[in-house]
Amino acid sequence: MVTSIxxxxxxxxxxxxxxYSVSKDFFPNGVTHDSRxxxxxxxxxxxxxxxxxxxxxxxxxxxxRGGHGALILGHCHPLVSQAVSNQLKIGTHYAxxxxxxxxxxxxxxxxxxxxxxxRFTSSGTEATLMAFRMVRAYSGKTKIIKFSDHFHGxxxxxxxxxxxxxxxxxxxxxxxxxxxxxxxxIVEETLNNSDDIAAIIIEPTGAHMGADPxxxxxxxxxxxxxxxxxxxxxFDEVVTGFRISKGGAQSYYGITPDICTLAKILGGGLPxxxxxxxxxxxxxxxxxxxxxxxxxxxxxxxxxxxxNPLSAAAxxxxxxxVANSPVNEIANQRSQQLKNGLNYVLSKLEISGCASGVSxxxxxxxxxxxxxxNEVCILPFDDQKKVGDPFLSHQMWLEMYxxxxxxxxxxxxxxxxxxxxxxxxxxxxxKALINIRKEGIL
Length: 442
Ligand SMILES: Cc1ncc(COP(=O)(O)O)c(C=O)c1O
Prior knowledge:
By secondary structure, the chain is of the alpha/beta class. The protein has 2 domains: 4-75 and 326-438, Aspartate Aminotransferase, domain 1 (Alpha-Beta Complex); 78-324, 3-Layer(aba) Sandwich (Aspartate Aminotransferase, domain 2). It is 45% helix and 15% strand. Helix 16 packs parallel to helix 19.
């Protein structure tokens, strides 16, 4: 069924449609990242500044996709742009160690509680892959527990038991155990049934960047149980690091994992990743005097763009801003304003659902009647499954975009959004919900 929402999207985005007619012959679905897939065609952006981006049809968009979570400072922050531009003039790659990487590590040390040592990678996917190598090498054990729907990148291990497992060997999948989140009983039973479990990895605010929230008590229970069983606890802070608080979810909840993975904000908008935490685990990369150890026990790690000077320059500038200015506080205030406004709209229109989420990640969850605390709103399993109705979410994405908002039902809030941007977003959401209701979808 082609809705009038979709028809409006097509009318307003003729140049995007023309681009798609070309790009679909280059790229599967015409896109270069699964989450940029959009029917009837994706939008193409050619400029961004601060809280906004502009598509090739000239539409100004308030951006809540925030570089997939990397841009808590918005687009082209002057200090980050200046740092990158200065670095461009003096070299983008020295194939050598740099003073910059020491400064970058030092910013992470200042902010992230579990920091003892660090290894930089080029992305979050590489960071979780490296974390798995380290914990397996360190513990001599093979299996890793992850939680249903938690996203940790796209390498074979983390994609096991999710959608899109084509090409992943069964032997690899067999090394991963996937459990429901928020159920410590099942975790304990699993640990009791196997002495081959190296680690547990979790998105500390919950699946899908926190859209399906983890109970903070569960995090503490995981910390306690992993200590008791001698299993390594990994927080995947690729999204939450430097966002949920300056020191990530571990600082926000006061629960320190053994190691954590970082990316996104770490690189100030340029490609970056890292694993940090206990020295004895990170030091699995360290060369020893023993050739046999180096051959079969040590974790080897190359990577042409590890700690590359451009990402390091952007990362230092971004982390300095996070450390020394109220970036997180402003993003949190804007998120609170947004949650309040969206919840008001839902009650005014008598639509069941809520706007909730921790710190600067806000989720609009439609179609479920429940009590909500606007923050860690945990729904019963069956209700959570109802929330992500793909058709409704798709129509919401298109209709919000028609009104100049790139969000759909997930808002990644940055610190350069103004109060007036948030008010416009709330108004647009009201219109979008009314239009969706007119279609008989809600
Ligand atoms: C929690 C989490 N871990 C890992 C990743 C993978 O990071 P990257 O896309 O940089 O490979 C992502 C990406 O969205 C993520 O959200």
